[in-house]
Structures are given as structure tokens and as C-alpha cells.
Give the backbone structure.
Amino acid sequence: MKFIEALKLRSKLLFLLVLITFGLIAISVIGTANVNAMKKNTDSLYFGSLVPIYELNEIVQIYNGELSATVFKAKASEINSDEFYSDITSSLEKIQKIWKSYESHFKRDEEIQYVEYVSMEIKNTNIYFEKLLKYAKDGHGFENVSIQLLEEKIQHIYKSIKKLINYEVDVAKYERKNFLENYDATLKQLGIVLLMVIFGLLVISYQVFKSIQDDQTELEVAHKKLKKANKKLEDASYTDSLTKLHNRRYFNMVYEREFKRAKRSKKHFTFMMLDIDYFKQYNDTYGHVGGDNALKKVASALNSIFKRPSDYVFRLGGEEFGVLMSETDPHNSSKMAQKICDTVLGLKVEHKASQVNDYVTISVGVVSCIVHPSINEEYIITKADKMLYKAKENGRNRYILSANECS
């Protein structure tokens, strides 16, 4: 079955289709051949035995019926010489025609000799009736015709043909016996062949299906791995590698979507821009490694604050972060902004170069409002950036909120 394993999935399906088609054709051919053989046996039984018996019986009926009745009518003066001549001639012609048909059928060697004997007896009997024809043609009456002789002739030909009929019946029984034997043998052979074909088809089909199933399993595993890899790639494309927050690319996609949704639903829309205070000085003092560690801690703190699925935290670049919240009014937005400032300060990340505090702090610009249909996306971002600038001007480590100005 290495050949099947080597085939590709499409080739295996095609191979299975061809296999099933071939099997059905083989079954059809075998079935047709055997049905034809049984048909020949049936023809042999019915047309080789039944028809000859019918023909022989018909000859007997003509002798016993038409010929005898014609002679009796003539003797009783019920018909004239012309009618007698016509009826006898017609009956003899029928006998000759039927007998000729009977002789044309297939005859076995052991049957031919007796058929020839019966043929001779028919000729002799017919000669008797031909003499009666000549007798009538010569104008003689039928008073002197012997009924006893007529009955002897009819009885004799009846016995001769009867023996032939009995022989034909025996042949019919023999043919029927052979037919049943051949029929049973044919059914047995056909059954064995069909079982072999079906078994072969099942075995090969099982192997093909098993191979297809294995391929399908491999495809599913590969698909899952690929899906997982794609998810990782997608996450990587939307995730900041340092802080593990959503990156600027993801912000651009989500911000547009949430902004349009807020505009449609006419519900509050909140956007925050955050900036670590004096972060350049932090890097100068503690180095870039220290700066990266500080960014990670601030990012982790922001993630711990925003838990709702509709809240998003982004690293927009450098020490700048963004927060997007849906259905949050100005009051709750203020509380969240203050919590950000308190939480970052609570990290107690040392910052000796800061002019605000001994620890790292953060400034926040907040815009929270119901978006008017005429406002575009950049307006909110620009407004939040201005609020951030004001927070820095007012001493940093604080937030400035703009509300009800989105119309």
C-alpha cells in the first residue's frame, strides 16, 4: 500500500473513484454474462422442450379430431365428396407443416432414430388418408369405409407420437434439472466473485480512506499550526515587542472603528494620551536598559487598571501611551485618569533626574464626550494632545480633562 501512501489527496480520491467505477463495471459484466447464460438455459428448457411437445400434441389432435371427424361425417353423408376432399387435404397439410417444424428443432443423437420411425409412421398413416382421398375422387361412396381400420390407424399413430411426447417430457425434466443445477452453480459462482470483488473493494477502499484520513489529520494539524503561527504573527504585528501592549498600527485600526461606533450610537467616547514625565532624562541617568524596564513597569500598571473588553491600552511610541474607552462619561474618565497617575507613582520607580518627584510619574490628557456627526477622527486625537500639553505645563504628574467639546 506504499503506492497509495505516495499519492496526493486529490489523486487518492480520483483513484478511489476509478476503483469503485471499475468494480461496478466488473460486477455488471459478470452479472450480465451470467444472466445471459441463465437466459440460454431458459430458452433451452422452454423452446427446446415445451414447443416440440405442443407441436406433437397438435398433430395428435388433428388425427383424433379433424381427420377422424371428417371420415365419420362422410360415412354419415353429412358432407359431400368435395368437402371431404378439401377437409382431409387441409388436415394432412397441417400435419406435414407441423411435423416439419418439429423436425427442425435440435435433436439429440439418441432421439433421431425414433423421430425417423415416427416420421415413417406418419407417412404410412397419411397414405391411408390419401387412399380415402383417391377413393372419394373416383366417385365411390363411403359406405364401405371401415371404421375399425380407421380407429386402428389413429390408435397406432397416437401411440407412436405419444412415446415421442413422453420422451420430450423426459427431456424437459432433464433440461429443467440441468437448468436448476446450472442456475445454482451460476449463483454460487456469481456470489463468490461478487464477494471477492466487494471484499477487494472494501480492503482497498479502507486503505485509501485510511490514507485520506491520515492526510486529513496531517492537514488539520498543519492548519492548526499555521493558524497558531498566523495568530502569533498577527499578534506580533499588532503588539509592541517591549511592553506587550497594542502598538500604533493596532491603535489606528481600533480607534477608527470605535470612533465610528460612538458616533453612530451617540454614547460617550474617551481617549487619553499619556506621557512619562522627563523620560529623556531618565534614559540619560539610568541608561536605555533602565528606561526599557521603566516602560515595562508602566505598561504593566496600565494593563492592571483597564480590565473591560471595550478598554484598550496602546504604546504609541517612545514613552507615549494611549487609552481608549467606550461608554465612559467624563466623571468616570476623570477617576480613571487619576488612578493612572496614582498607580504609576505607586510603582516607586526611582527617578532622580525628575523635576516633579523622586519617582517616575505620568501626565495624562483626556478627552471625553459624545461625538457630534460633524467631528472627524483627528479632532479627538489633537484635542487629547493639547490636554496632555496643558498637564505638563501645569506641573506634570496630573491629568487635564476636556469634556463636552466634541461638537
Summary: Strands lie at 268-276, 312-317, 320-326, 362-370, 399-403. Residues 2-212 form a domain with the Four Helix Bundle (Hemerythrin (Met), subunit A) fold (CATH 1.20.120.1730). The chain has a mean pLDDT of 84.
